[in-house]
């Protein structure tokens, strides 16, 4: 099958699926929570990169790994303070 046939069948099915999920109240809340978490996850990567660049000039190295990103994404500002405290004291 060509990609045009696959896309012309697949896109309406995906859109119908998303419409059904969004119409259902509980799934809408779940999707909203997931989108907030993924935004915080992406922002944590950006924040760690900025901290890595800024503190790197002082001789410290901030690791950008999944543990650090999940900690910041879940805890927020206390997570940032915790990660930077670990960097300075260890």
Description:
- The protein is mainly alpha-helical.
- It contains four helices and no strands.
- The mean pLDDT is 83.
- InterPro entries: BofA (IPR010001).
Features:
about 90 residues; mainly alpha; single chain
Topology diagram in text:
Layout: H1 3-23, H2 25-56, H3 66-75, H4 77-89
Helix pairs in contact: 2-3, 3-4
InterPro entries: BofA (IPR010001)
Keywords: Membrane, Transmembrane, Transmembrane helix
Organism: Lysinibacillus zambalensis
Return residue spans where pLDDT drops below 50 for at least 5 consecutive residues: none
**Helix content range of the residues, please?**
over 70%
Structural class: mainly alpha
Order of helices and strands: HHHH
Strand content: under 5%
What is the radius of gyration?
Answer: 20 Å
Shape designation: elongated
What would the average pLDDT be, to the nearest integer?
83
> How many β-strand stretches?
0
How many strands, which pairing sense, and closed or not: the largest β-sheet? Answer: none
> What's the number of helices?
4
Distance between the termini: 57 Å
Transmembrane segments: 6-25, 37-60, 66-89
Pfam family, one: BofA
Organism: Lysinibacillus zambalensis
Keywords: Membrane, Transmembrane, Transmembrane helix
